[in-house]
Amino acid sequence: MATEQTQVLGRALLTPAVALLFIWMIVPLAMTIYFSTLHYSLLDAETWSFVGLENFRYFLTDPAFLTALRNTLVLVGSVLAITILLGTPLALLLDQQVVGRSVVRLMVIAPFFVMPTVSALVWKNLLMHPVSGLFAWIATLVGATPIDWFNDVPLLAVILIVAWQWLPFATLILLTALQSQDEEQKEAAEMDGASAVSTFIYLTLPHLARPITVVILIETIFLLTVFAEIFVTTGGGPGLATTNIAFLIYQQALVQYDVGNASAGGLVAVVIANIVAFFLVRIVGRNLEA
Amino acid sequence: MKHVLSALLGAATLLGSAPSIAQTTLTIATVNNSDMIRMQALTNEFTAKNPDITVKWVTLEENVLRQRVTTDIATKGGQFDVLTIGTYEVPIWAKKNWLIPLDNLGPDYDTADLLPKIRDAVSASGKLYAAPFYGESSMVMYRTDLFQKAGLTMPEKPTWDFVIEAAKKLTDKSDGVYGICLRGKAGWGENMAFLTAMSNSFGARWFDEKWQPQFDKPEWKKTLSTYVDLMKAAGPPGASSNGFNENLALFNSGKCAMWIDATVAASMVTNPKDSRVADKVGFALAPNAGLGKNANWLWAWNLAIPAGSKKTAAAEKFIAWATSKDYTKLVASKEGWANVPPGTRTSLYQNPEYLKVAPFAKLTLASIDAADPNKPTVQPVPYVGVQYAAIPEFQGIGTSVGQQFSAALAGSSTVDAALAAAQSATEREMKRAGYIK
């Protein structure tokens, strides 16, 4: 029952906070847009000039751009698929009453707490190395030729590393959701003679729809910018096999200290992320509204 | 109001600075290599002699250091008083007047004692713009036991033909021994450092005198196809993701018969603590193709003072201390001669105590002498630098070309396709940067 005066007063008091938030958001964005129209290299800072959309043209016509875009989408899609398809059964298993459950849970969640650079190094040198890695050792034990991961299937290798890191996240979210599932409903289903499979399909899966959506949205945001794993293992190569948009921006722009090009690349990445997010929300976001 | 504020501020500044009026604090940015970490630990010896100077360290990993230092100097940030920079940056930054020439390193500094090739690399128009802390070239490290078993003798100046033949002969894949380990991981300081040095020995060059990229020339084709064929026949699997550290691990665990890489690796492969093959390593000059150039590179980490520093005198004192002969002696007295920073001074290579503990010393010196940053290739070039071209654009170009070449090594691209892609990418970049129309 606010009077008109208190409403006005309330808005006035809110203004500084809102203004601050607005500046917080708009200044970096405006700076990035401004820099993206300049030919401005840190190594040649004296001679910057206004070039309009030249930086965007340059970035988008880069022969590597389309490959990088495709790699980004493949990477995000595959990791999402792996983490959800493996995360759901893992969460179901962890939901069971077993001895030492808390320890098992901790172990399953552990990969998420390893720094990306560290896990990339471990996978590269201790697991996937074709000469001294664990996988190569197992392969030679059973008489097979070791797979040369980063040479023959580099993108798959990166996908596996990233998926390994994000699987705990998906599992954790799904597990939390499972624990909020109504036990009585499940018991009722059991008494009605429903099989475990149909219980899962008709009760558990609909219950998990919303957390799965959350997992997809959050993971997508982070997976679009995967960088450390690529930088450490393959350096974007061989060729362009593992170059994603984030790595392309790094390589095209940051290695050159080209502020203009980096800003343009950054804005392109923002646009791509928004497009992806738009479609994702339309496809899966409906679940959130229920 | 404003007056009151500034008066207060002024008073505060006066009060704050009064007790430490004679103190100068140097902020030094450096790279996290073991030699620099050691320098940090020995700083007390410097501050004890110079009580009016305190030293603050910013130690970073190579890539991060390069970014921080470049950003700072380009934006005139003034965060650092002493910078650690590579030979790549020195000529570029000196030309831009971003560095102060080091004219006043004191009477004891003995500039003439610096190795001529290293001194050239850190000088511009006859003036020293950075002081070398340690230097390196590249050379062949090989397993004497495997060579003996195969009845081969490594010449002191091997040719590529010999290296290729020996590598094929020494490869025993069933036993996990590979004839040769070379860098394959993409990057201007990774595979391109090696491949550019190798290309020099085959008569190739990055650019002609008009800055036109040369990847469409037969010399580069010969370089890259020789490299790819050699690695396919005698290299370890996964070579396209191997850099310096990966190859060091392979060599130290006895998986490589030969390894061509930085001379600083010599002290690591002969250290029994880290290397399983420490007592079986021999050294030779980097290979040549009979054209008068070896596949040598030249690199040094150096200390320099950014232009606009207000603590020049103290910074010069520190640089003179850290790169002096006395510093070498100090390290030797504390950690032994094997651990002194190598590759910068002639006197070190005449010191019998050093030569006794460093069997690779003679070849390190010969390798450094064989590289010439001002005349790196058989044909004339418009750039300075042996395994790089000292232009700002090179880091980016080198890395994208490195990616193409690692694809050729991995087999996901052919040598011809990789060279064509390298040529067009480099042309594109050079046009954008305004070198060619």
SSE blueprint and pairings:
The complex is a heterodimer of chains A (290) and B (437).
Chain A: H1 4-36, E1 38-39, E2 49-50, H2 54-60, H3 65-94, H4 101-109, H5 116-127, H6 134-141, H7 149-152, H8 154-179, H9 183-191, H10 196-223, H11 228-233, H12 245-254, H13 259-284, H14 286-289
Antiparallel strand pairs in A: 1-2
Helix pairs in contact in A: 1-13, 2-13, 3-8, 3-10, 3-12, 8-10, 10-13, 12-13
Chain B: H1 2-17, E1 24-31, H2 34-41, H3 43-49, E2 53-60, H4 62-74, E3 82-86, H5 89-95, H6 116-121, E4 123-124, E5 127-128, E6 131-143, H7 144-149, H8 160-170, H9 191-201, H10 218-234, H11 244-252, E7 258-262, H12 265-269, E8 281-285, E9 298-304, H13 312-322, H14 325-335, H15 352-357, H16 361-370, H17 394-410, H18 415-432
Parallel strand pairs in B: 1-2, 1-3
Antiparallel strand pairs in B: 3-9, 4-5, 6-7, 6-8, 6-9
Helix pairs in contact in B: 17-18
Quick tags:
heterodimer; A: mainly alpha; 14 helices; 2 strands; 73% helix; flat; B: 437 residues; alpha+beta; 18 helices; 43% helix
Structure description:
The complex is a heterodimer of chains A (290) and B (437). With 290 residues, chain A is mainly α. Chain A is built from 14 helices and two strands, in the order αββααααααααααααα. Chain A has helices at residues 4-36, 54-60, 65-94, 101-109, 116-127, 134-141, 149-152, 154-179, 183-191, 196-223, 228-233, 245-254, 259-284, 286-289, and strands at residues 38-39, 49-50. In chain A, helix 3 (65-94) runs antiparallel to helix 10 (196-223) and helix 10 (196-223) packs antiparallel against helix 13 (259-284). The longest helix of chain A is centred in the N-terminal third of the chain and has 33 residues, at 4-36. Helix content of chain B is 43%, strand content 13%. The model of chain B is unreliable at 7-21 (pLDDT under 50). In chain B, the strands form two sheets. In chain B, strands 1, 2, 3, 6, 7, 8 and 9 form a seven-stranded mixed β-sheet that branches. Chain B is built from 18 helices and nine strands. Chain B has helices at residues 2-17, 34-41, 43-49, 62-74, 89-95, 116-121, 144-149, 160-170, 191-201, 218-234, 244-252, 265-269, 312-322, 325-335, 352-357, 361-370, 394-410, 415-432, and strands at 24-31, 53-60, 82-86, 123-124, 127-128, 131-143, 258-262, 281-285, 298-304. Chain B starts with a helix and ends in a 5-residue tail after the last helix. The longest helix of chain B is centred in the last third of the chain and has 18 residues, at 415-432. The chains are: A mainly alpha (290), B alpha+beta (437). Chain A binds chain B through residues 41-45, 58, 63-64, 124-125, 129-132, 146, 148-152, 154, 233-241, 243, 251-252, 254-258, and chain B through 67, 70-71, 74-75, 92, 176, 185-188, 190, 236-241, 246, 249-250, 253, 255, 392-393, 395-396, 399-400, 402-404, 406-407, 409-413, 418, 421, 424-425, 432.
